[in-house]
Design brief:
The structure holds two protein chains of two kinds. Chain A is α/β, with parallel strands linked by helices. In chain A, 42% of the residues lie in helices and 19% in strands. In chain A, helix 5 links the parallel strand 4 and strand 5. In chain A, 48% of the residues are buried. Chain B starts with 7 loop residues before the first strand and ends in a 16-residue tail after the last strand. Classes of the chains: A alpha/beta, B alpha+beta. Chains A and B meet through helix 1, helix 4 and helix 5 of A and helix 3, strand 3 and helix 4 of B. Bound molecules: guanosine-5'-triphosphate and magnesium ion.
Chain lengths: 212, 135
């Protein structure tokens, strides 16, 4: 792409932001099992009275991206219209044996693994279409993984807003401060998507990051 | 039993900077699928890493290849100037990066400034040493 084209495309991106022609597209990203769909369901239920998708303890439950358009989030007088995309969990490796450990048959496990690889590809493709990201991490897990780094790096490189939802703080072994020290340059909001704990704080972060 | 080692390829920044993204990804995935560990002196951009993950996903197969283990130190990003923004310039790039076959490599400890990893000679990480996770 030539310099002039780059200036043009950079400029049109700005114009869109300034005049807010469309609802901002917000992707919910993170590793498998972090609680992305649980959070998406809560968001959509709170603001539209709807649901987004199925939740499971088996990783790679979401294997296609799902978009809910026109979700109106209100916080302290700020009202924003968002398109929310629940994405398949990101991974650098997928081994069908891991699904067999959950009691799935070999055939089912292989099919799930294949679909999971396609899900990861779809999640990555969506990175190009977004205006912002909520990166969901399981606060009982080690936050310092390449998948998390890739999502953060891609949003930083595009200069797009991102914050981290440190999920599952209802569990005693959760350590949201570990996440904050791994990603000191980003806001971390500790939540329980399952129980709704701190969900107001999440809406506040959405209003300030995506409403500006 | 014949001793079997693991090949480690150290790729210099000079070689990498002369390659395009597609060539870098081929170099990495061909090496990893032969069972080697690849060390890049200077890492990939976030965009290149995303493409590497995408290509990895298309090459995973039930019997032969379950994916990659990848570790790097992120660069401290300089705040983009307005010129960078207008040109859509991407300034983030990872530092030293290690990539290996997921069935042979296991991260022991990792934080911002220290990575510890174990590479197993045999095809399988011994039982009980695995994460039991697909990330
Ligand atoms: N304790 C606890 N469990 C949670 C919380 N949020 C989600 N879970 C559980 O974590 C598991 C995974 O939740 P999902 O919402 O399916 O996770 P996901 O990130 O969408 O996973 P994939 O679609 O597989 O990538 C389920 O068993 C959820 O019930 C939480 O806040 N606390
Ligand atoms: Mg899901």
């Amino acid at each position: 792409m030539g310099v002039i084209d780059k200036i043009k495309s950079g400029f049109s991106g700005w114009m869109k932001k300034i005049f807010k022609k469309e609802a901002a597209r917000i992707g919910i990203y993170g590793p498998p099992n972090a609680g992305k769909t649980t959070l998406a369901n809560r968001l959509v239920r709170d603001w539209c009275g709807d649901a987004m998708g199925a939740v499971s303890e088996v990783p790679h439950e979401t294997r296609r991206a799902h978009m809910k358009k026109g979700v109106n989030v209100q916080h302290n007088g700020t009202s924003l219209s968002l398109d929310i995309i629940d994405t398949p969990g990101l991974a650098t490796k997928i081994d069908f044996h891991d699904f067999m450990a959950f009691g799935l048959s070999e055939e089912e496990s292989k099919r799930r693994a294949k679909e999971a690889t396609e899900g990861v590809i779809e999640s990555i493709k969506w990175l190009d279409e977004l205006d912002g990201v909520i990166l969901v991490m399981d606060a009982t897990e080690d936050p310092y993984t390449q998948v998390n780094i890739v999502v953060v790096g891609n949003m930083e490189a595009r200069d797009l807003p991102i914050f981290i939802a440190a999920n599952k703080i209802d569990l005693p072994e959760s350590a949201p401060t570990k996440i904050a020290s791994a990603f000191p340059q980003h806001q971390v909001v500790p939540i329980s998507a399952l129980e709704g704990k701190n969900i107001e704080k999440l809406y506040e972060a959405m209003a300030s990051k995506f409403g500006g | 039993m014949e001793a079997k080692g693991v090949q480690i390829d150290l790729i210099s920044e000079d070689i990498l900077s002369a390659m395009d993204t597609g060539d870098k990804i081929r170099l990495i995935l061909d090496g990893v699928q032969m069972g080697n560990v690849i060390v890049l002196e200077k890492g990939l951009t976030p965009d290149e890493e995303a493409k590497l993950i995408q290509t990895t996903m298309t090459e995973i197969s039930a019997e032969d290849f379950s994916g990659i283990e990848i570790e790097s130190y992120p660069d401290r990003m300089a705040r983009p100037t307005w010129v960078d923004r207008v040109l859509g310039r991407r300034t983030v790039r990872n530092r030293l990066t290690v990539i290996g076959p997921a069935n042979k490599m296991k991260t022991v400890k990792r934080d911002r400034d220290h990575i510890s990893t174990v590479v197993y000679q045999d095809d399988k990480i011994p039982d009980g040493q695995q994460d039991g996770k697909t990330t």
